[in-house]
Task: structure prediction
Amino acid sequence: MALRISPLGPILVDRSSPVPLYFQVAQQLEQAIESGNLPPGTRLENEVLLADQLGLSRPTMRRAMQYLVDRGLLVRKRGLHRFGSDQLQALRHVERRHF
Result:
């Protein structure tokens, strides 16, 4: 199943792949961030909507997003979505802190 998040292009998940679904999603979002297709400050839909659009469970989508947050590629901001759920904003790869 594919999800189109403009200007990302489609996010594809392959359920027959041995690669975990959360990691497939995270890798594609990471590529979009690092390539500049997802510029800093871009707001993504909330995890529930993204999960629904991809046909994934919320925990799977949350894990994908948390993976990117942990890597410093996304930040969560509360209160930006009209339903009160977390929003994610993309940060450029070069803005990550390297320890």
Summary: Helices lie at 21-35, 47-54, 58-70. The first strand starts at residue 2 and ends at 4. The first helix runs from residue 21 to 35. Residues 80-85, 92-99 have pLDDT under 50 and may be disordered.
